Automatic annotation (TrEMBL):
Homodimer. The chain holds residues 104 to 362 of 383 of the full protein. ATP binds at residues 26-33. This is Iron-sulfur cluster carrier protein. Binds and transfers iron-sulfur (Fe-S) clusters to target apoproteins. Can hydrolyze ATP. It comes from Phreatobacter cathodiphilus. GO terms for biological process: iron-sulfur cluster assembly. Belongs to the Mrp/NBP35 ATP-binding proteins family. In the C-terminal section; belongs to the Mrp/NBP35 ATP-binding proteins family.
Amino acid sequence: GRPSQPPSPKAATIPGVRHVIAVASGKGGVGKSTTACNLALALAANGQRVGILDADIYGPSLPKLFGLHGKPRVVSGRTLAPLEGFGVKVMSIGFLVEEETPMIWRGPMVMSAITQMLREVAWGELDVLVVDMPPGTGDAQLTMAQATPLAGAVIVSTPQDLALIDARRGVAMFRKTEVPILGIVENMSYFIAPDTGNRYDIFGHGGARKEAARLGVPFLGEVPLDMALRERSDTGRPIVATDPSSPHSLVYRDVARQV
Ligand code: ADP
């Protein structure tokens, strides 16, 4: 008889979740988690039912960004209930381990942790699940890009050449896995001195817009380097939720409308 069908290379969708959007960066420290957090809140502010998953399992920052500390409740078997912050459902490996515990995990453990956080969480009905990806373009990123059908990926970069080279690698990885690139956000795009109003392009400016044009993907917006944004992030009061009319929040709202 005929050989049986090979298993589908595409993994299953998550029940109840309509779209999964990845927020990624080629390297760490460019503001990927800050962007993921505020994008999720902006999507919620635009009227969507939103969840966010911290797939940055080596450096989970969502508990801090959302100001959440509790342990997720077990709802049945191994399934955990996400915590909730500012109307967004949040799941992070940071809820399950101590903050100081170093996570020295091998590849297969990383992969099973990511799939478990996608599938064994009672997300309920969501319009969008935002995934804060691990930085870079290695195995963990690839696992995530293939663990569930992604509606698209948002790439975060600073204007610096080095960050842009890494961002380009990120775009290439998603293209290879046939994930649509929703666009590029330039973070730390410029700085306005609060005392003088003078503008400084600390990491350069406009590099991401140029790179997006070169790659033929949308440019989604520029977020300045800003002390208030950083302070709010560090104290669990993300800017989109706690200062919705600030110019930065409007940029995130605008990005949310485009994805
Ligand atoms: P990543 O997820 O890429 O590692 P984070 O979002 O954790 O980056 O940001 C790294 C640090 O930079 C954090 O302390 C964060 O608060 C800060 N940061 C990110 N974006 C901005 C910004 N636009 N203005 C000021 N500080 C920022």
